[in-house]
Amino acid sequence: MLPLRCQLKQAPPRKALCRFWAVMGKLQSKLKHSTYKYRPDEVIEERIQTKTFQEYSPAHVDTVSAVAALNSELCVSGGKDKTVVAYNWKTGNVVKRFKGHEREITKVACIHKSNQFFSASRDRMVMMWDLHGSSQPRQQFSGHAMVVTGLAVSPDSIQLCTGSRDNTLLLWDVGTGQCVEKASVSRNLVTHLCWVPREPYILQTSEDKTVRLWDSRGLHVAHVFPAKQHIQTYCEVGEDGHKFISCSSGFGGEGCEATLWDLRQTRNRICEYMGHFQTVASCVFLPKALASVPVIATSSHDCKVKIWNQDTGACLFTLSLDGSGPLTSLAVGDTVSLLCASFSRGIHLLRVDCRRGLELREVTAF
């Protein structure tokens, strides 16, 4: 067992130091991670852990913009290097690289229980890929006038919805690649899309600080949620389709929150999660088996991943990924793992540990 030093402090710890050295042909890193565990008496328990873990060869040579889990072993990711990468995060191997985009990849989305997935790019294109097919795109979707910033696959995998900074949403037939619906709202610069499970509805966040609920049957706005004070950067729907989370931009602790909303009849704001100091870029509902209470996770440009009590808004744990730069994307890998994309250090594999309460630790990076 590695030594664990616990101290009780009111102030946050100093930034961690990082040393690297080569061991048996693989890059090893010895990192001091700053973590915070929040106790009921409001005293912050600081735990400084020094742990050696493997850093595999990076999946990308530049910033990673988006990551999504294809299954319980594979993820797909994209970034500034214009490449989509399928990676086995349990073995540390690149499975396949896909090239076709001419500019930075902004979003990736997977078809449920399939080997197929989509990527969106600043080149205004969306491409469909097959893990076991050619390294060339299986289908291409061209119709936006500006960078594509939203991707959502229908629950039956028949339709794809895309959104852009050109204020439009397009609905596509996945099989034919044809656009079947188009809608536009003035000043509606799309930041993210997600499809509500088992429903014909699509959630969309926007730079106009609102979240819209679209009905895919005719592609029209069914509801607009009350505007927030800052740009809404991301949204995620729970498995039951009853609630969703949206994330806010911000700086210096102003804004920088995640918000839980009711998707049913009331469509009210339920809870807010405040504690990040820069833009919250992504959020996920964590598997129910992890804890006795429902929990969510958020990642931020402040280099931190936080776990929250979904019902009370209490922060249960904070992991600071020092040296990673802004955290850009977060995805559930399996029942105990998270995948977190970053600006400077690729993709981080995080493991939720329930042995001493709910804790989060970094296992590897690639």
TrEMBL record:
WD repeat copies, ranges: 98-139, 141-182, 183-215, 273-318
Record-linked InterPro entries: WD40/YVTN_repeat-like_dom_sf, WD40_PAC1, WD40_repeat_CS, WD40_repeat_dom_sf, WD40_rpt, WDR31
Pfam families: WD40
PROSITE patterns: WD_REPEATS_1, WD_REPEATS_2, WD_REPEATS_REGION
UniProt keyword Secreted, yes or no: no
Entry keywords, A to Z: Repeat, WD repeat
Name of this chain's protein: WD repeat-containing protein 31 isoform X2
Species, as recorded: Trichechus manatus latirostris (Florida manatee)
Encoding gene (name): WDR31
